[in-house]
Design a protein that fits this description.
Blueprint: H1 2-11, H2 17-34, E1 43-48, E2 58-67, E3 71-80, E4 86-92, E5 99-105, E6 114-117, E7 122-125, E8 129-131, E9 140-143, H3 144-156, H4 164-181, E10 187-193, E11 199-201, E12 206-209
Antiparallel strand pairs: 1-2, 2-3, 3-4, 5-10, 5-12, 6-9, 6-11, 7-8, 7-10
The structure holds zinc ion (ZN).
């Protein structure tokens, strides 16, 4: 249960020390009640105070999932229906070493490659985009297509930018991302994670230990 509490703590600002404690205790007790004799089930706590807007509209979920070639992992999320605050993260049940994965993305088939990305990970697609870790960074289990479509979504907003140069760059980047998704353009994806809670799950992926 320690891992769950740690993650929930990471979600919140240091100023919310009291609330961290409340979440930690609540999650732990609820899990014990529901977890009798059963493994891997979803746990949900609702009507919690939101750390952003303070409304009691926050839903916390925790789920244990067995991810092939990665191992068992905890998936967490916090979603506020009042202010749309959302955070999510993933953490391996077993402690992992800092890790660096890279993969050549060269076909539409590669879009299906499964990716585990924690909030601590840096995701790089050279000359295209870098997803940095930080307070706004989310953790999730997806595939390469999922990462590309997230970058695309963020770029969409810039298409209508007043600055014509930015708008033009955004349009070109979206075209490039589409070509990658269709397998018409090759690229590379690199994930570095000092927490070890990330992975690119493919025989094609190159795994290296990352220096701390
Ligand atoms: Zn809220």
């Amino acid at each position: 249960m320690q891992a769950a509490i740690r993650i929930i703590k990471n979600f919140l600002n240091p100023a919310d020390a009291f609330m961290e404690l409340v979440f930690g205790v609540k999650l732990a007790s609820k899990k014990e009640q529901k977890g009798q004799g059963k493994k891997s089930e979803e746990m949900e706590v609702d009507n919690e105070p939101c750390p952003m807007c303070r409304e009691k509209k926050l839903v916390l979920t925790e789920r244990e999932e067995d991810i092939p070639y990665f191992g068992k992992a905890y998936l967490f999320s916090m979603t506020c229906s009042a202010c749309k605050f959302h955070e999510a993260d993933v953490e391996a049940v077993e402690e992992k070493e800092p890790v660096r994965y890279s993969i050549d993305v060269s076909s539409a088939e590669d879009m299906k490659v499964r990716v585990v990305k924690s909030s601590q990970a840096t995701v790089k697609i050279p000359h295209i985009a870098t997803i940095e870790p930080g307070p706004a960074s989310q953790g999730y289990v997806t595939n390469i297509e999922g990462i590309i479509s997230r970058i695309k979504q963020q770029t969409e907003a810039l298409k209508e930018d007043e600055d014509e140069e930015i708008a033009d760059k955004a349009r070109k980047l979206i075209k490039k991302l589409n070509r990658i998704a269709w397998g018409e353009e090759k690229t590379r994806m690199i994930i570095e994670d000092p927490s070890g809670n990330s992975a690119i799950i493919s025989d094609k992926a190159v795994v290296e230990k990352m220096k701390k």
